[in-house]
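User: Just a sanity check before I run the rest of the batch. Below are the C-alpha cells for the first item. I only need the designed sequence back.
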C-alpha cells in the first residue's frame, strides 16, 4: 500500500509574529539570542546597515575610551553583581528589542548612565531581567564584541527584586519606562505588555482585557500589529498604525480587522490612510447606531475592491478621483459665489475631504445604511464625479 504524506503550508508571517502571544508562560532568552533573533527580522540591506552602524559605534567607543581594556575599567555603578552569562531576558516582560536604540546607546556610552538591570529569580534560580533589556544588550556588546571577553568572566550590576508577581512587575515596567532618561514605551510596546499581562499574568484590568480582545481579532484575521522600528511593516498583514486599534472598542476593531483581511487578502500590508478612513467610517456607523455585522463588512470590502481596488494609497485611485471631484465642486461654488472664505482650494488626502466623497460614493454604490456626513467641510461631490 502506497503511503501518502501531507505537506503543511508554512505559517503566514502574521501567524509567526502573533505566535509569541500564544503562551501562558514566560519566554526566557539570552542577550546573545535576543540580538540574533531581532537582527534576523530585518532584510539583507538593513542588516548591512546595522553591521556598518555597529562597527562605527564600536570604533567610536574605542576612540572615546582608549584606556578601557578590561571590564573593570568601565567603573559601573556598584550594586549586587552577577555574571553576564547568568543573566537572561524574560521577553514576555519586555518590549521588543530595538537594535537601533542599542546602537544609539553604544555611540553615546557613559558608565555613569548605566543603571543596574532589574531582575527577579524564578523557582529554578534563574536571573531574569524584567527591565533593562537594552542596557543588558549594550553591556553584552561591549563585553563580547568590543573587549572580546567571555560572558562568564564579567560582572554586571543588578537589582534583585524579591518577588515573582509578574503583574506587579509589568505595571512597574510600564511606569519606569515613562520617565526622563529612559527610552519611552511606544503605544505598541504598552499594547503588547497589556496582552501579555492578560495571557500570562491573568490580569483582570479592564483596559488590559480590552487590549487582549482586540489582539484576538487581529490574530483571527491573519493580521499583525507592528511598528517601523521592527523592520517588517512591508510584510503582508502588517498594521503599522495602531492608534485606531487602541482608540476603538473591541467590537469595532473586530469589524475593522475583518474588513482589512478581505481587502488585503493576505497579499499586502495595511496602508496608513486605509486605517484612518475605514476606522473612522466604522466608528461613525457605531455612533449612528447602524447595525454592522459580518455581511455588512464583507459587502463593504467588496464594493471598495470593485470601485477602486480598496486602494487608499496617497497616490492611488481613490484620492485621485476625490481630488478631481473636489476641484470641480470648489470651482463651481466659487463661480456661484457660495464658497466660504475659510474653505481652501487645495484638496487634502484626509477624512476632512475624503469622507464626504466616500459617503457620497457609498450612497450610490452600497446597498446598506451609511452614516451621515459629519465632516467640517461643505464639500459634496457631484454625481458625475463619482466612480
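Assistant: Here's the designed sequence for the first item:
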Amino acid at each position: 500500500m502506497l503511503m501518502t504524506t501531507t505537506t503543511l503550508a508554512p505559517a503566514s508571517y502574521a501567524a509567526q509574529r502573533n505566535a509569541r502571544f500564544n503562551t501562558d508562560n514566560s519566554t526566557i532568552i539570552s542577550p546573545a539570542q535576543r540580538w540574533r533573533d531581532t537582527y534576523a527580522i530585518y532584510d539583507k540591506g538593513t542588516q548591512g546597515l546595522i553591521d556598518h552602524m555597529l562597527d562605527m559605534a564600536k570604533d567610536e567607543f574605542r576612540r572615546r575610551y582608549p584606556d578601557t581594556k578590561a571590564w573593570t575599567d568601565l567603573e559601573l555603578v556598584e550594586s549586587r553583581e552577577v555574571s553576564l552569562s547568568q543573566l537572561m531576558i524574560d521577553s514576555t516582560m519586555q518590549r521588543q528589542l530595538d537594535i537601533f536604540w542599542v546602537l544609539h546607546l553604544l555611540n553615546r556610552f557613559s558608565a555613569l548612565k548605566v543603571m543596574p538591570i532589574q531582575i527577579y529569580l524564578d523557582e529554578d534560580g534563574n536571573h531574569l531581567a524584567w527591565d533593562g533589556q537594552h542596557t543588558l544588550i549594550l553591556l553584552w556588546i561591549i563585553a563580547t564584541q568590543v573587549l572580546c571577553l567571555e560572558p562568564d568572566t564579567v560582572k554586571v550590576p543588578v537589582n534583585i527584586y524579591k518577588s515573582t508577581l509578574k503583574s506587579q512587575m509589568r505595571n512597574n515596567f510600564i511606569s519606569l519606562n515613562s520617565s526622563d532618561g529612559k527610552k519611552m514605551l511606544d503605544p505598541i510596546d504598552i499594547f503588547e505588555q497589556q496582552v501579555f499581562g492578560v495571557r500570562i499574568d491573568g490580569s483582570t484590568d479592564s483596559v488590559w482585557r480590552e487590549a487582549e480582545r482586540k489582539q484576538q481579532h487581529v490574530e483571527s484575521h491573519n493580521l499583525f500589529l507592528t511598528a517601523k522600528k521592527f523592520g517588517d511593516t512591508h510584510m503582508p498583514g502588517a498594521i503599522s498604525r495602531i492608534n485606531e486599534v487602541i482608540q476603538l472598542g473591541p467590537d469595532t476593531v473586530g469589524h475593522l480587522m475583518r474588513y482589512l483581511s478581505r481587502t488585503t487578502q493576505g497579499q499586502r500590508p495595511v496602508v496608513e490612510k486605509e486605517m484612518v478612513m475605514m476606522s473612522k467610517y466604522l466608528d461613525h456607523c457605531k455612533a449612528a447606531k447602524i447595525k454592522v455585522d459580518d455581511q455588512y463588512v464583507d459587502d463593504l470590502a467588496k464594493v471598495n475592491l470593485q470601485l477602486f481596488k480598496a486602494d487608499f494609497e496617497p497616490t492611488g485611485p481613490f484620492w485621485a478621483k476625490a481630488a478631481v471631484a473636489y476641484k470641480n465642486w470648489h470651482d463651481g461654488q466659487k463661480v456661484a459665489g457660495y464658497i466660504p472664505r475659510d474653505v481652501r482650494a487645495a484638496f487634502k488626502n484626509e477624512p476632512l475631504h475624503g469622507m464626504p466623497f466616500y459617503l457620497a460614493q457609498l450612497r450610490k454604490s452600497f446597498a446598506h445604511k451609511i452614516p451621515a456626513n459629519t465632516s467640517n467641510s461643505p464639500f459634496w461631490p457631484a454625481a458625475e464625479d463619482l466612480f
